[in-house]
Design brief:
Layout (H helix, E strand, L loop, with lengths): L8 E6 L5 H4 L11 E6 L1 H10 L4 E5 H7 L3 E11 L6 E5 L10 E4 L4 H14 L5 E4 L4 H7 L2 E5 H8 L6 E4 H9 L3 E9 H6 L1 H20 L2 H10 L4 H10 E2 L4 H16 L23
């Protein structure tokens, strides 16, 4: 155990349903060194990954872009969709083309989805709406805006209601417009952690990948838990999880690169993002 062995390695876990398969069978107690897992909403995890208080874990794609210089992306782990995602939905009274300069209510929980909406409205439709950040409640949002963006379990529950609104799936829209898949969350490791504790990082990556493979080989336990916690049917959740992609291969990387490039072009991210991957033998070279 090296000099850093006494610092517990901190792992960030997203609490949203869509990330469950990667964490479901992940057991921190089985790792080679002591770790601590923090479960939180993306905004808190994003902050921890940026300031280094979280060593390794999940963060939203946009937050990765903001902190990319400090982070390395982990292979084979993401929450992506090659088409509809079913949990990032824009609700509107009129077709979206009619509210190019209208008002859209957004939740303050996910920068990735809000910035995806800004990219699509601006680049795909040449629109320039006003965005209002309020609590994620569809009824309240539609009282003050022409459209409302909901994500995660809020979006899923609203999609089950009979509200007579137009529903636009942002991931389906992105796929239709760009031809690429959309990556919503990535797994990354802070460069300091790679340098200081390479063994435990490698152990964590393998354990996360193993959890993913085991989850996807039989979705029934996860589907059961989703029904208990969120509601809905076996059929809905089976389709939901089967529809998501948890890999991070070439196709997912290309889609994410495009998203981050557009975010930079619109001034949402100040620097050009150069994506770098962690590999098993990664050691950060210390500059002399």
């Amino acid at each position: 155990m090296g000099v850093h062995g006494y610092n517990k390695t901190i792992i960030g876990k997203i609490q949203y349903t869509n990330a469950w398969p990667i964490f479901y069978y992940f057991n921190p107690d089985s790792l080679c060194e002591p770790t601590e897992m923090i479960t939180a909403v993306p905004s808190l995890l994003n902050k921890g990954m940026n300031d280094g208080s979280i060593d390794i874990g999940a963060l939203s794609s946009f937050a990765y872009g903001l902190s990319s210089e400090k982070l390395l992306l982990l292979p084979d782990l993401s929450v992506s969709a090659n088409g509809p995602v079913q949990s990032i939905l824009l609700f509107s009274r009129q077709p979206i083309e009619t509210i190019l300069n209208g008002t859209i209510a957004v939740t303050n929980t996910s920068a990735t989805s809000i910035n995806l909406l800004k990219i699509l409205m601006n680049k795909a439709l040449n629109g320039n709406p006003t965005y209002l950040s309020i609590e994620p409640d569809l009824k309240t949002m539609m009282e003050v805006a022409d459209a409302a963006l909901l994500i995660g379990d809020n979006a899923i529950k609203a999609s089950w209601e009979d509200h007579g609104l137009y529903v636009t799936d942002l991931s389906a829209w992105w796929k239709e417009w760009t031809g690429y898949s959309m990556t919503f969350a990535v797994w990354a490791v802070h460069r300091d952690a790679v340098e200081n504790k390479p063994e435990i990082i490698q152990d964590i990556v393998k354990a996360l990948q193993a959890s993913k493979h085991r989850s996807l080989s039989d979705l029934n336990p996860i589907v059961g838990e989703a029904i208990t916690t969120v509601g809905g049917t076996q059929d809905y959740w089976m389709r939901y999880f089967e529809n998501l992609c948890y890999d991070f291969g070439k196709e997912q990387r290309q889609g994410l690169e495009l998203y981050l490039r557009y975010a930079h072009e619109l001034g949402l991210i100040q620097h050009e993002v150069k994506m770098e991957m962690w590999e098993e033998n990664t050691r950060i070279r210390v500059k002399e």
